[in-house]
Amino acid sequence: MDLQDFFSMKARRVGPSIIAQMARMLGPDGISFTSGEPSPDLIPLLGLREAFDRAAGQVSLFSYPTTAGYLPLREWIAEWMSREGLAPAWLDPSCLILTNGSQGALNLLAETFIEPGDLILTESPTYPEALLAFQREGARILPVPVDEEGPIPEKLEERMAGAKAKFFYTVVNFQNPSGCTTSDARKAAILELARRKGFFILEDDPYRYLRFEGKPTKSYFEMAGEDRRVVYLGSFSKIIAPGVRCGWCAFPLNLKDKLLEIRLSLELCPPALTQAAVFEFLRANDLRAHLVKLAREYKNRRDSLVQALNREASRLGLRLSVPKGGFFLWGTCEGIADMFEFAQYAAREKRVGFIPGRFFFPLEGEGADSIRFAFAKAAPEQSREGAARFADALESYRRIFSPGRNLQ
Amino acid sequence: MDLQDFFSMKARRVGPSIIAQMARMLGPDGISFTSGEPSPDLIPLLGLREAFDRAAGQVSLFSYPTTAGYLPLREWIAEWMSREGLAPAWLDPSCLILTNGSQGALNLLAETFIEPGDLILTESPTYPEALLAFQREGARILPVPVDEEGPIPEKLEERMAGAKAKFFYTVVNFQNPSGCTTSDARKAAILELARRKGFFILEDDPYRYLRFEGKPTKSYFEMAGEDRRVVYLGSFSKIIAPGVRCGWCAFPLNLKDKLLEIRLSLELCPPALTQAAVFEFLRANDLRAHLVKLAREYKNRRDSLVQALNREASRLGLRLSVPKGGFFLWGTCEGIADMFEFAQYAAREKRVGFIPGRFFFPLEGEGADSIRFAFAKAAPEQSREGAARFADALESYRRIFSPGRNLQ
User: Which of A61, A348, B104, B328 lies in the 20 to 30 Å Cα band around B246?
Assistant: First the structure.
């Protein structure tokens, strides 16, 4: 019995997650800059434990949940988004579905929209787990390059040429992996293109509240107003805890029935109990104060890693771009022919982990010299040690594998 | 912008869940025999609350979970399945994935195996939410009729004719909706067919432990042994609580990588915290004693509803088949031209809910006079009142819509 004969085309199209592989390769004594994961010591454990206790006392939460998710949390989110200026006037809780993290929402939208062969616009580089879901469904990706102001509208138009795309997927604040934030001017220009060319915008915004400096941006979702072509994805993974697996998507009402039909066929619904625990946490705690604390801590971690890497490795050809928030440092490193091979070497021999940038590019052959460091889980002393190990790895790798080369 | 142009074929193929619709139609003062849902008073709330408290004290559970799910629970399940004689010798925790209820597992397998146009064998009647997932992926369904011993092997062979099917989906104990249990002889015959014709078996077994009388059956999964063509689906929804959204699938090891790749692209992973809470519950409580209690209570409910319906409605043409376990009574009711219309009438006018049997048949036009009652949530006094309302609805519906007809 040859299993390959049994697999669907989508099963054949999907492959392993490189980020998960790199994270596993490192082992427990490694210093990891691999995963875009909140720092465990910044998870509000006490508040969450109390919140779970309040939720677990409600017998109704142990029955089958409603398909869209726990209503009080959807109400809370709708109100919060409106107060934050992120939502158009028409948003109400019936335009919200709670999902198993953002990935659940990305998948729901991939299943709803993508027919094999469809064109999907994404940033380049972009979040690879989104690409996994889109490519599994058979999407052909049209990559739109980003600079420090976000995706470049002229390039988007150029890449589309005369073709039709279903949607543009974009991470709008402190993008994973490049750290860029889309300016409001860029958003306006891209919205205008979306209208003209007839595509949806999938606005993924998990890092919005981890801003270290500068002013908050607007959202496509709010800017589009009555032009109902934006789906907004939010998540509690980065600001409360990824383990609660609670994200959401907010969408124009005319998408609701179809999204709920697909969702039911996928999983009925994720657990209302964890959604209720998130709601109980939000009710009993000052989220604003928590976010201020997170931003302060993560800024400190960013600064420590930037300083340490610059000190140790800029002389070796590492160039970093410094984001105004989020979890990631993005950079380039000259003179490494195969960054994946180097990353494996560094993980194995020097116990330091990072992600070769090329895995974030939809097209093969791009981003060969780029590199991503996640600083969220690294305390300052780990950053110093990790940066030293990185520089050590770089030097010894070059010595072994390209001894003729000397950048100094 | 016409939304239809944006939807994938799968989005167009999926439709609303009739069971969810019927359940909603009834309203709060109705007596519902619609949903296959455990009785809230049989959910072990105290034990679950303690279990959630123990789980929520572990910070690691608030980080991103592993893709396959919480290892201690997978170990517990592997051991339990082995002790229960349900597992082949090769089963170990790496052949198990925890899912968002059984639906999560059904969907995972649908995505992995089904290519549009593929033939999938199911029982007829069968669980409609499984059909939703299979048909969404574009499966063509080959229905295999069941009798009181389960699916009929000769019919299965006849229906397949010379064609290739990817798998046979079967609910082996106290099947939803017909209540039938597949005998071990039938399993052996169908396994032999599976070998000969080269298809997988998807064995769905959520009701196994809700047996009221008679001896437990074997599993396809164990019977197949080294012939690794069975995937076994289990669930805590019916025996602990559906709200924990915790099911599992157990599979031959060579399926593991592909299932995990698909799972990651769908949702990364469901929350480990709820999986850990299930594990903590199982550790601290006597599951065997709990199952004995559940079986006694649900038997009582079955008996009450059977008695009440026979007393009130057998004179009106209702014929019931009495299952040896599970949640469902299945029957036929003569002289109703449109059972869906009647069900809507009964819900609206007499505040009693049940499901027209035809929605459980993969092919249109079958099961026109069949009907499903779920007894799990109905306490004996509700069954008496509900049966009276059902008889009242039947009489008045016949009077209004077919006044010439008189069965008495």
Answer: B328
**What average pLDDT score do residues A235-245 get?**
97
pLDDT tens digits, one per residue of B268-301 = 999 999 999 999 999 999 999 999 999 999 999 9
Band (pLDDT 50/70/90 cuts) for residue B408 is: very low
DSSP bridge pairs for B351:
none
Out of A241, A264, A285, pick the residue that ends a domain: A285
Confirm whether A220 is domain-assigned: yes
Cβ proximity of A380 and A304 under 8 Å:
yes
Chain A closest-CA separation from residue B396 CA (Å): 33
Interface of A with B in 43-72 (CB under 8 A): 43, 45, 48-49, 52-53, 55-57, 59-65, 67
Q: Specify the 3-state DSSP secondary structure of A360.
A: helix
In chain A, how many domains are there? 2
In the block, residue with structure tokens 């032999």: B192
Length of chain A in residues, anyone? 408
Round to whole Å and give the CA distance between B267 and B164: 31
d(CA A397, CA A345): 8
Together in a domain, B348 and B204 = no
Which domain does A333 fall in, by range? 3-43+289-401
What pLDDT, in 10s, does the model give residues A347-371?
999 999 999 999 999 999 999 999 9
Any chain A CB within 8 A of the CB of B266?
yes
Whether B79 and B119 share a structural domain? yes
Cα A254 to Cα A57, A72, B368, distances in angstroms: 36, 22, 33
B265 in contact with A, Cβ within 8 Å: yes
Position A407 in a domain: no
Contact (CB, 8 A) for A119 and A143: no
Residue with token string 């594990």: B279
> What is the pTM for the complete model shown?
0.96
ipTM: 0.96
